[in-house]
Design a protein that fits this description.
Elements (H helix, E strand, L loop, with lengths): L20 H5 L6 H8 L6 H13 L24 E4 L8 H4 L7 H13 L19 E4 L13 H18 L5 E5 L1 H14 L1 E2 L12 E6 L6 E6 L4 H4 L6 H14 L9
Parallel strand pairs: 1-2, 1-3, 3-6
Antiparallel strand pairs: 4-5, 5-6
Keywords: 4Fe-4S, DNA damage, DNA repair, Hydrolase, Iron, Iron-sulfur, Metal-binding
Family: Belongs to the uracil-DNA glycosylase (UDG) superfamily. Type 5 (UDGb) family.
InterPro entries: UDG_Type-4/5, UdgB-like, Uracil-DNA_glycosylase-like, Uracil-DNA_glycosylase-like_sf
Length: 267
C-alpha cells in the first residue's frame, strides 16, 4: 500500500479532528493508489477501529494462525474499471482478515463465483491477497471501509466514510459506465456520493429494489451512468434463496453490458 503521495497530516487521524480525516484527505488523492493508501491509515470512527482490532486479537479458531489485516479495506479492481460493485462494509473475519474486499467469507464466495461465471473475474474463488484473482473491468468497493459490529455501520459512520467513496467514484469517472449496488444500505449511501462525483441524481431519488435500474446523467454532459440494484450477497439472503446465483448473474450481466464489457452467457 506504499505510495509516493504524501498526506498533509502527521499521522492517520492525528492532525486535527480524527473524525474529519476522510473529508480532509480524500479530495487530495490524485489517483486510486494514493486514495487506497490514505484509506488504509484512517482511524476516524472509534467504534469501528475498536471492533476491527478486537476481531484481529480474538480471531476465529479456524483463522488462529492468520495475521489479520485489521485496517480499513480499500477498493479492489483496475483503476480504469467500466463497472463498479458497491457493497456494505468488510466482514470482521473476512475482508478485515484478508485485507481485500469480499475475500475470505461466504458472501465473497457467492459474489466471486458469479463474477467468474459472467466472465468478469479470472477465477471463481477469493481466499487471500496474492491468490492470483484479477477482476476484468470491474472495481469492488463499499461505503464503509471498516468492519462494523453485527455488520451494521451507523448512519454517522457511513457519512464520515462518504468522502472516500465520492473520491473513488470521481477518479473512476472517465471510464465508469455502470454501478451495481448490493443492498438498500449501500443504495442510500451511494446516491449522494454519485452526486458529489458529478452525476445528476433525480428527485425523488430512485428507490432500491432487486433488479432496479436507472440511468443517471452526468452534470457536465459526459457519459451517463447505469445504476443497478441487487440484493446483498449476505448469508441471510443466499442461504434462504432470496438471492440465487442466477439472480445475481442476471444483474451482473445487465450492468456489464451497459458498461460495454464482454460477458459470458449461460448455456
Amino acid at each position: 500500500m506504499a505510495h509516493p503521495e504524501r498526506d498533509t497530516d502527521s499521522a492517520a487521524g492525528t492532525g486535527g479532528d480524527p473524525g474529519s480525516w476522510p473529508a480532509r484527505q480524500a479530495p487530495g488523492a490524485r489517483d486510486l493508489a494514493g486514495l487506497d493508501a490514505r484509506i488504509c491509515r484512517c482511524r476516524a470512527c472509534p467504534r469501528l477501529v475498536e471492533w476491527r482490532e478486537e476481531a484481529a486479537r480474538t480471531k476465529r479458531r479456524a483463522f488462529a494462525d492468520w495475521d489479520y489485516w485489521a485496517r480499513p479495506v480499500p477498493g479492489f479492481g483496475p483503476p480504469d474499471a467500466a463497472m463498479a460493485i458497491v457493497g456494505l462494509a468488510p466482514a470482521a473475519h473476512g475482508a478485515n482478515r484478508t485485507g481485500r474486499m469480499f475475500t475470505g467469507d461466504r458472501s465473497g464466495d457467492f459474489l466471486y463465483a458469479a463474477l467468474y461465471a459472467v466472465g468478469l473475474a479470472s477465477q471463481p474463488t477469493a481466499t487471500h491477497r496474492g491468490d492470483g484473482l484479477e477482476l476484468r473491468g470491474v472495481r469492488i468497493t463499499a461505503p464503509v471501509h471498516c468492519a462494523p459490529p453485527a455488520n451494521r455501520p451507523t448512519p454517522g459512520e457511513r457519512d464520515t466514510c462518504r468522502p472516500w467513496l465520492a473520491r473513488e467514484l470521481t477518479l473512476l469517472r472517465p471510464t465508469l459506465r455502470s454501478v451495481v449496488v448490493l443492498g438498500a444500505f449501500g443504495w442510500q449511501a451511494v446516491l449522494p456520493a454519485l452526486a458529489a462525483a458529478g452525476w445528476r441524481v433525480p428527485r425523488p431519488r430512485p428507490v432500491f429494489a432487486h433488479g432496479a435500474r436507472t440511468t443517471l446523467r452526468a452534470a457536465d454532459g459526459g457519459a451517463p451512468l447505469g445504476l443497478f440494484g441487487c440484493y446483498h450477497v449476505s448469508q441471510q439472503n443466499t442461504f434462504t434463496g432470496r438471492l440465487t446465483p442466477d439472480m445475481l448473474a442476471e444483474v451482473l450481466r445487465g450492468a456489464a453490458e451497459a458498461a460495454g464489457l464482454p460477458v459470458a452467457h449461460a448455456d
